[in-house]
Amino acid sequence: MEQTKEKKIPKISFLKIWNLTKTFFSKPSNVILVFFAILLTLTVIYPLISLILDSFKVQSISEAKEINELWETSVKKGDFTWAQWPNLLFNKQNSDYSLNFFWDPLYKSILMALLACLIAVLGGGILAWFITRSNIPFKKYISTVFIFPYIMPSWSIAMFWENFFKNTTIASCNYQMGMLQAMTGICVPENLLYGLLPCAFVLGIHYAPFAYILIGGILRNMDANLEEAATILKASRFKIIRRITIPIVAPALISTILLVFASSISSYTVPAFLNANNSFTSISIAMRGLLMTAGKKGQGYVVAVILLTFSVLILTINNWFTKSRRNFTTVSGKSGQITKVKIGGTQTWVKWLVCIIICLIVTFFAVFPLVTFILESLEENSGDITTLTLRYWLSSESFDVRITAQGQSAEGIFHNYTIWKAFGRSVVVATLVALIAGTFGILIGYAVSKNRHGKLSSYVSSTAFLPYLIPALSFGAIFFSLSFTSGFKFLNVSTTNNEWSAVAICVLAGGIKFLPFASRSGTNAMLQLSGEIEEAAIINGCPWWKRMTRIMFPIQKSSFISCYLLPFISCMRELTLFVLITSSFSLITNVLQYFDTYGLNQISNGINLLIVLFVIIVNLLVNKLTGASIDKGIGG
Amino acid sequence: MPRIELINVSKKWGKFVGVDNLNMVINDREFITLLGPSGCGKTTTLRMIAGLETPTSGKIIIGDTVVYDSDKGINVSPAKRDVGFLFQNYALWPHMTVYKNIAFGLENLKWKKKDIDARVTEVMKTLRIEEFKDRYPAELSGGQQQRVAIARTLAPKPKVLFMDEPLSNLDAKLRGEMRTELKRLHNDTNSTFVYVTHDQLEAMTLATRICLINKGVLQQYDKPLIVYSRPANLFVADFVGNPTMNFIPAEAKRISKDTLSLRLFDIEAIFKADKDIELPNKSIIIGVRPEFLPINKDGKIEGLAYSTLPSGMETTVKINLHGDILSAVQFGLIDYPIDSKIRFDIVGNGIIVFDTKSGESLGVGSLTIKK
After folding, report:
1. Measured between CA atoms, how close is A248 to chain B, in angstroms?
2. Looking at beta carbons, which residues of chain B come within 8 Å of A233?
């Protein structure tokens, strides 16, 4: 038997391999997979590995000196070393150093992220339940406006928080009066204005719509019969939620928690805005500090690697949960006939009360920030309505000679060429990033949906999602170090002195960083298309690109446009990712920060208003014209 | 003992009328099927009785309790109506094992753990699913999921059991088996069954009474054989039976209390009803079941063989009669070449006469063709 078996093993001939390769590449989806496997390895995996290696490398001469003194070694710049890790984590010379620069920030950041998760998931989840499962009125208004805090930059909510709660009893805000004090006279204590708690609140508010979209998507798709079956078997309303609804949405809930946690823990801008006198050092602030200090860069990379490990862990847990054997059986039923829960039963005032409370809360976080930005940009003295002026918008005189001395404009917003040039560049970056991320996302979605269980396709789809979990600052750091590599120096704005270098590298970094949700929603949209739709076109001899542009795209038009919308909006409001690789004048977000550091609060608030309005208007316009929406962009 | 009564029940969504002024009584231990084309309001009716849907107006009584009354503002929650409900897609909870799915309802009734265990084991045995006890629904086949769903519904011993197209997701063979099982279950459980289906064969074979609904309006509510042999109108006649009833337009003249003289195409015939008959218009439609069209060489009517469809035990022959296609059923395997001449008769005493204008049945009787 064995002998015959041996004989039957065919000789591997060159021709055979060539034929197999030809068959493999005759499918466009395979070509796309191979292309993205290579591209993502180069742009995601390779930088990751080099980041890990950097944490084991002596980064500078001063670092070498410190390591040699501590460990009695003789390493030079560029040598391999283990020392960075114990130096940061368990510094034997100064244990307070490890505590202050790593353990304490890490602990506080985890606490902040957990709190933010709790707020986001509770807020978003409860609202999702009300919208999908109850009979409250004004659902359309609530769900439109509730998305605003997610569309707005997270730091603009932080700015709003500051504008609203600052008061004349707190030194850290220069004793300025905020809206709450101006309206009610209430002065909140400092730890409600700056520090861990407000950061968690702001992040929670920012990510609550995100949780709402993900949980609401599941609730909407969940078969209502599952709950009705429990009703018939005499389970109480509360028991149904506890024993049926929550366990069934649990996988989505857990993945929401993990995603919010991942983005909160590495958030840089919010702690940076709500951190007076360095009272609250988050892990991201600690990392930036280390990366920016000459002798500590290596330790900064260590922090980046640790944050990364968190992310990979989160991704693994997430995959494990969604693949468990209890997973969703999607038998389509008569789910259209959902019986909405009647809030308050026959007493309609309860329903209206709930509705009014929800509307108030939602409006407060969506509309109030805009109001404070408008007011702050118009008030000579913050919080003082009697000092209204339009000069920060209209004046053609310079407000600060230091700015003019740098060759930049410090005039009123409408006359300020620094602002409008940066705004233009931001739009260019956002548009290009959206085109790249969206198109790549759709192509990846196509290829992955055609090879659902292949190893290569699962590699491509998880690599494409990985950038979401890499902290924006570390991601920026990767491209930062790239721009110092010979051959890529044309991308470094500080050496070329050309803002378009910054635009180019931002497009590169943004295109990859904002790929995750584009690829995810692209995959979802493609999976919804049955294979026969494309096969019918193949039978008709329709070439691949024509199938894509004439059949696939028109059918899932709104989903695909959503693939472009989310990267555009995310990019328009992004600061953390770009802060290392741009100059102070490259993008509108840079300029905002620039004016903020020069104390021109009115102008920075005005810029903020511009960004937020622009983003919201684009979102609503695209939504109205094409039916695309942020919900679909997230893949919920 | 539960007797279900619906009085003037209507359900409207805006201008769309789902169920229009429905009146019916379901007696204890009956097996009722709500039959009709999709979208006719049968599922809505069932869900209204169960309490999953709120009627727009009317009154529903289960047993001695009024569970819904639009005038008095009574609306008892489904949990308190003491009914069981079997969903079309089974609605098994994906995160619970088979055992937990079945036990859930009993837990809600605050049964003792020992009793729950005994009852769950009992129903699992009845439905032959003991071996799947610890599996999750996703790990079962369609037929097994179906059994689990039935077990879950039966476990609390409901006196009334509602089923919403429970067999439509199964393959033909399994469907046949489950029909047999359901009929036995009805006998064993001593409960009232209300069953929604669009499959007239299922309704015929299972029900003690069929309730036929079209566009939200009750068409006929009778025993299966009555619905089959004495349909109330053209819709019922057309919906029930496979192959469907033949409809032949004719002109009629009343010649005595129970006799009509007919003219269909160029054929003269006498129709004798089994009761007295009224004739509002002279234009009528004659309904003839395929089994009343025997083909034989000496048949009095001549047509052309349009198509022959043998299915083994019997053969359906489509006959072209002056452009109208009629169906005849013959026992055994026969084949006629296409467009060959066929002679046949109209026999039996189950011939029905409908009024063309209203579609209502005028009477049932026999037809004699004059040579």
Report:
1. 7
2. 79, 104-105, 108, 152, 156
pLDDT confidence bin for B218, thresholds 50/70/90: very high
pLDDT digits (tens, 9 = 90+) for B58-92: 999 998 889 999 898 888 888 888 889 998 888 88
What's the token pair of residue A243? 């024993």
pLDDT beyond 50 at A333: no
Cβ of A528: how many Cβ atoms within 10 Å?
11
Interface of B with A in 100-139 (CB under 8 A): 104-105, 108-109, 136-139
Cite the residue boundaries of each domain of chain B with CATH code 3.40.50.300.
Answer: 4-238
3-state secondary structure of A123: helix
pLDDT at B4: 93
pLDDT band at A338 (very low <50, low <70, confident <90, very high): low
Tell how far CA A291 is from the center of its chain. Answer: 22
Report residue A340 as tokens: 């909405």
Nearest to A231 among B78, B93, B138 (CB): B78
Name every chain B residue with its beta carbon within 8 A of the beta carbon of A323.
Answer: none
Is residue B208 scored above 90 in pLDDT? yes
* pLDDT at position A6 over 80: no
Q: Do B79 and A231 touch (CB under 8 A)?
A: yes
* All domains in chain A, ordered by first residue: 27-54+401-586 (1.10.3720.10)
> Which of A253, A331, A342 to mutate against chain B (most B CBs within 10 Å)?
A331
For residue A236, list chain B residues with Cβ-Cβ distance below 8 A: 79, 108
Task: Convert the pLDDT of each residue in B182-195 to its tens digit.
Answer: 898 899 888 899 99
**Across the interface, do B138 and A334 touch by the CB < 8 Å criterion?**
no
pLDDT score for A324: 55
Q: Print burial letters for B23-36: b (CB count within 10 Å at least 16), e (below 16).
A: ebebeebbbbbbbb
Q: Which residues of B touch A329 (CB under 8 A)?
A: 92, 94, 137-138
pLDDT of residue A119: 94
Residues of chain B with CATH 2.40.50.140: 243-369
Which CATH number does the domain B243-369 belong to among 1.10.10.60, 3.10.129.10, 3.40.50.2000, 2.40.50.140? 2.40.50.140
Chain centroid, CA A382 distance in Å: 31
Superfamily for the B4-238 domain: P-loop containing nucleotide triphosphate hydrolases (3.40.50.300)
| A520 in Cβ contact with A465 (< 8 Å) | yes
The backbone region for B164, taken as left when phi is positive above 0, alpha when psi lies in -120 to 50, beta otherwise, is beta
Interface predicted TM-score (ipTM) of this complex, two decimals:
0.77
- Taking CB atoms and an 8 Å cutoff, what residues of chain B touch A339? 52-54
Cβ neighbours for A455, distance < 8 A, ≥ 6 positions apart: none
Cβ distance A269 to A202 under 8 Å? no
Query: Chain B residue with minimal CA distance to A233?
Result: B105
Q: Which has more confidence, A506 or A380?
A: A506
Q: In Å, how far from its chain's centre is CA B325?
A: 26
The verdict on a CB contact (< 8 Å) between A229 and B91 is yes
B78 touches chain A (CB under 8 A): yes
